[in-house]
Amino acid sequence: MTAAILTFTISAFVTFFTVIDPVGLAPVIVALTSHLSEEQRNLIITRATLISAGIIAFFALVGRFLLDRLGINLYAFDIAGGVLLFLVAVDMLFGRQSGTRETKTESEEAMTREDVSVFPLAIPMIAGPGTIATTILYVDLATPHPLDLLAVAAAIISTLLVAWLVMRSSMHIIRLFGRTGILVLSRILGILLAALAIQFILNGVVLFLQMHKFAH
């Protein structure tokens, strides 16, 4: 039982870490806050992290309820979420700006904003569609088991803590690894995310087949 919970916790953490991609946020922070003082930058980073936590908690609590009210079966969300995560993974692998996180127009608008904590940092860079889909998927997987739910919560909190620390240290990270080093790491994470995305799709297909098998 303990080994299973540990495996589930690691799986959840790796997925959330890869989707949010804290290291990939470093150059974004540098670009958006280069004109601000360190104190202002840290305030924006903290605010963005807390707002993201609130958004993720909201969907963790009511995500499944919303799916039920909309008449969306879980296998459909598994497949859709897997496809969405796979698109994010492809963008990471090819070093492209992900349209699932932020469009070019949104990026250009963000450069002119003084407070970027809500947009684009909290939404969609941290708590974007990929993060929301991952939250609903993992909470649903863990729902029958309280310890698994605690594991998902721990994975989310630890990932957000890492993201907060990385964003606060973004200037040092850029100097240490450079943009090329960050891109290399993002590509490695992209491979992991692609595999996890395919697994979600396969889970959805298996659930679909099981439900229709019992229905007949």
Which terms would index this structure?
mainly alpha, globular
Q: What do these coordinates show?
A:
- By secondary structure, the chain is an all-alpha fold.
- Helices cover 85% and strands 0% of the residues.
- It is built from 9 helices and no strands.
- The protein has helices spanning 2-20, 22-33, 38-69, 74-93, 104-110, 117-126, 129-142, 146-168, 170-215.
- α1 (2-20) crosses α9 (170-215), α3 packs across α6 (117-126) and α7 (129-142) runs antiparallel to α8.
- The mean pLDDT is 83.
What is the helix tally? Answer: 9
Kindly report the average pLDDT value.
83
**Which residue ranges are poorly predicted, with pLDDT under 50 across at least 5 consecutive positions?**
none
Give the tally of β-strands.
0
Q: What is the strand content? A: under 5%
Q: What is the N-to-C order of secondary-structure elements (H for helix, E for strand)?
A: HHHHHHHHH
What percentage of residues falls in helices of 4 or more residues? over 70%
Quick one: overall form? globular
Main pleated-sheet profile: none
SS-derived structural category: mainly alpha
Distance between the termini: 34 Å
Indicate the multimeric state.
Answer: single chain
What is the radius of gyration?
18 Å
